[in-house]
């Protein structure tokens, strides 16, 4: 594995490990994009242009970085290594296609739509807890709980176990940051506890199938093929993790964005029919995902660059989503915006996010309810953002709003 080799003049350098980068990634991307479609970073190539990001996502000469990220941190064995080897997002080729084909039978938009009434009920229930105060720390009060309840209902997990899942998910998210080695004991402890729980849940559903996603995964068959016990365990653990942490961060990104754009918040409250376009615009404007790193399988030329085998590249969704060549006035937040091209927060190509329909539905149901029940939204203190991680978003988001009249 290697960083970007010597490159033509004019390609800027962006220090993605500098806290100043995390403080305003969009400004850093904008400055770099004025000079080039890409930038050099301490770990490789940062791809900034929409068309180029899409090209990397679709080009088979690039593959997911996957467990190579662990090798870079000095981890080449153990529970975390084994988990990275098995999860669907780190698979390639025919094996990846097979896993997605089997899982997609169970993970359908129809199944997601059946959860929409529960999403609305959970949103109202959580808001009831803090609405009378007219203020909250949004992550702890809402964003951390809402997706846990939704993915728990989808998977058929007993409600009493939701809080444990959230704690395990928070610790697992550290596996997708820049301090994997330092956090390894904490990550692997959470992975072990989650894996043991999933084993018990799978055994229960084998004995007594239900109408939940785990039962559907156990039943998934195609021409005699089925998920193995190890594949099922890895799939359910990643669904529990992915269904919580990323959506928690995306909700917090959305509310931080709306707090800075009060007119848009008021419009959503008045026009809840804009829920779908509002969700899409928040995904474009302030995505929770920074982009899943890729690594070059071979040496090749792309545009003016000679890409060496082993080069690491990050196809940046936040940068692509604000490319002025695609989106007019891209730094303007407009919940009624018409998108000429799909935003790339969920990736593209073979590795397009399996949970995209669930995440969209959760945003579409929660945002208009929040807008109606938290009028005159504004920040109530500084926002604390995650740093140096693939999954970004506020860790703390203090908000205040008008108290609903009786």
Evaluate the radius of gyration: 21 Å
| The first-level CATH class name | Mainly Alpha
Can you count the helices? Answer: 19
Q: How many β-strand stretches?
A: 12
Helix content: 40-55%
* Tally of separate domains: 1
CATH architecture: Orthogonal Bundle
Q: What is the averaged pLDDT score?
A: 91
Key attributes of the depicted protein:
Cytochrome p450; 12 strands; 50% helix; 19 helices; alpha+beta; 406 residues
Report on the structure:
The structure is a single chain. This protein is α+β, with helices and mostly antiparallel strands and 406 residues long. The protein has one domain: Cytochrome p450 (Orthogonal Bundle), CATH 1.10.630.10. 50% of the residues lie in helices and 9% in strands. The protein has helices spanning 19-23, 25-33, 50-58, 68-72, 79-86, 93-104, 109-113, 116-130, 138-143, 146-155, 162-172, 180-207, 213-219, 229-242, 245-259, 262-270, 275-285, 317-320, 356-373, and strands at residues 38-41, 44-47, 62-64, 135-137, 294-296, 300-302, 305-307, 312-315, 378-379, 384-385, 394-396, 398-400. A 5-stranded mixed β-sheet has the order 1-2-8-5-3. Strands 4-12-9 form a 3-stranded antiparallel β-sheet. The longest helix has 28 residues, at 180-207.
């Amino acid at each position: 594995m290697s960083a970007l080799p010597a490159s033509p003049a004019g390609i800027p350098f962006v220090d993605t490990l500098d806290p100043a980068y995390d403080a305003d990634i969009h400004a850093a991307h904008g400055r770099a994009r004025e000079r080039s479609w890409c930038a050099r970073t301490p770990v490789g190539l940062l791809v900034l242009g929409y068309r180029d990001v899409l090209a990397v996502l679709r080009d088979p000469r690039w593959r997911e970085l996957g467990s190579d990220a662990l090798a870079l941190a000095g981890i080449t064995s153990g529970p975390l290594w084994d988990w990275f080897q098995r999860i669907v997002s780190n698979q390639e080729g025919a094996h990846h296609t097979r896993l997605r084909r089997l899982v997609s039978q169970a993970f359908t938009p129809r199944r997601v739509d059946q959860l929409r009434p529960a999403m609305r009920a959970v949103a109202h229930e959580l808001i009831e807890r803090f609405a009378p105060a007219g203020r909250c720390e949004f992550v702890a009060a809402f964003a951390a709980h809402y997706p846990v309840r939704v993915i728990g209902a989808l998977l058929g997990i007993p409600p009493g176990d939701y809080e444990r899942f959230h704690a395990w998910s928070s610790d697992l998210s550290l596996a997708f940051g820049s301090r994997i080695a330092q956090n390894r004991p904490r990550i692997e402890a959470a992975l072990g506890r989650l894996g043991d729980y999933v084993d018990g849940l799978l055994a229960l559903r084998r004995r007594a199938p239900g109408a939940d996603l785990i039962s559907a995964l156990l039943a998934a068959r195609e021409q005699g093929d089925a998920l193995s016990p190890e594949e099922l365990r890895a799939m359910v653990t990643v669904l529990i993790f992915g269904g919580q942490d990323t959506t928690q961060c995306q909700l917090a990104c959305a509310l931080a964005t709306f707090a800075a754009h009060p007119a848009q918040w008021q419009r959503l409250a008045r026009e809840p029919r804009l829920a779908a376009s509002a969700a899409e615009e928040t995904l474009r404007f302030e995505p929770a995902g920074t982009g899943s790193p890729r690594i070059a399988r071979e040496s090749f030329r792309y545009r003016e660059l000679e890409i060496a085998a082993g080069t690491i590249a990050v196809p940046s969704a936040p940068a692509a989503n604000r490319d002025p060549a695609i989106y007019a006035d891209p730094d303007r937040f407009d919940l009624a915006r018409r998108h000429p091209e799909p935003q790339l927060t969920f990736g593209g190509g073979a590795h397009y996010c399996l949970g995209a329909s669930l995440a969209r539905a959760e945003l579409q149901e929660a945002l208009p309810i929040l807008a109606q029940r938290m009028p005159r939204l504004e920040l109530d203190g500084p926002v604390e953002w995650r740093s140096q991680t693939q999954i970004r978003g506020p860790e703390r988001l203090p908000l205040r709003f008008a108290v609903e009249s009786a």
